[in-house]
From TrEMBL:
Protein name, as recorded: GTPase IMAP family member 3-like
Cross-referenced CDD domains: AIG1
Transmembrane segments: 300-323
Residue span, AIG1-type G domain: 40-243
Family: Belongs to the TRAFAC class TrmE-Era-EngA-EngB-Septin-like GTPase superfamily. AIG1/Toc34/Toc159-like paraseptin GTPase family. IAN subfamily.
Record GO terms (molecular function): GTP binding
Protein keywords: GTP-binding, Membrane, Nucleotide-binding, Transmembrane, Transmembrane helix
Amino acid sequence: MACCQSLDQTHHENIKVLQKGGKDATPTADGGERGCTVGLLTLRIILVGKTGSGRSATGNSLLCCPAFESRLQAQSVTSECQDEKTTWDGRTILVVDTPPIFEAKAWTPETYRDIGDCYLRAAPGPHVLLLVTQLGRFTAQDSMAARRVREIFGKESTRHTVILFTHKEDLGHESLDQYLANSDNRSLQALVQECGKRYCAFNNRATGREQQDQLAELRAVLDRLEHELEGCFLSNDLFQRAHLLRQGGDAALQEGHSRYLARVRQQVEKQRRELKELESNCVCRPFLRAQTWVLLHKKICAACVLGSLLILVILLIILFKVLHFES
């Protein structure tokens, strides 16, 4: 308990300093924070998406080795968070694989535990959320998974999301750009737009030159994202607490774990409320704009109403004369 008290006391003092000499917190529009890296520090990637989309296989492609268990089956093979590291041109890459926390199911204590574990492994925050989905099979479950990502990591998470399509080999001679341009899947089109058209495709069975080429394509997308965000990673109050807990070592994790899990639940519930409010505002916004325009242009609206009534009267007179003439 002493550790928990110490964590709360130091939290606000550490809110802007996430790691010595390395990262500063930058406020976001929604009151959250983004951390910014200085120099070529570890690039942190979290694999997200629905069960069966190929998250673990994609992680193995990123690592160029079978670090995560991956099998073709309906049930998730990954039962808990795992992380592995590799290097890209001397830069350390941390890849976090996730259990089925992005499904349309109840929010159980196990779900919050897994979310807390994911936050701990990716602390002080991920640079990239790699949303994995199968090419040609973007379903309602994929849309739900994308929504869950925002519920679990907050509204700002979309700015850090890159869509990765598995089964690249199914494209044949068509490019991914052409496939997306010709797709009539509105949910997919909307997600691509929300994610700033950041996407890539993998053949997770590729080896040799093909594997290196698709990695190079993804790295180009990630480099562009890092440049756009000026090196900032996704951070919030919970990521900062997770980072402080990790800095405290195993003893701190054991003593503060139950209180940390309570914080996980509070953070996720807060983000779910904010997402619902945002969606509600999006639905109401066109009506509010129309109402505002009417209030600002009363004379024009009145003239339009009178003009419409006049046209209606003229049409009724014409109709009456036509009917009278025929009789």
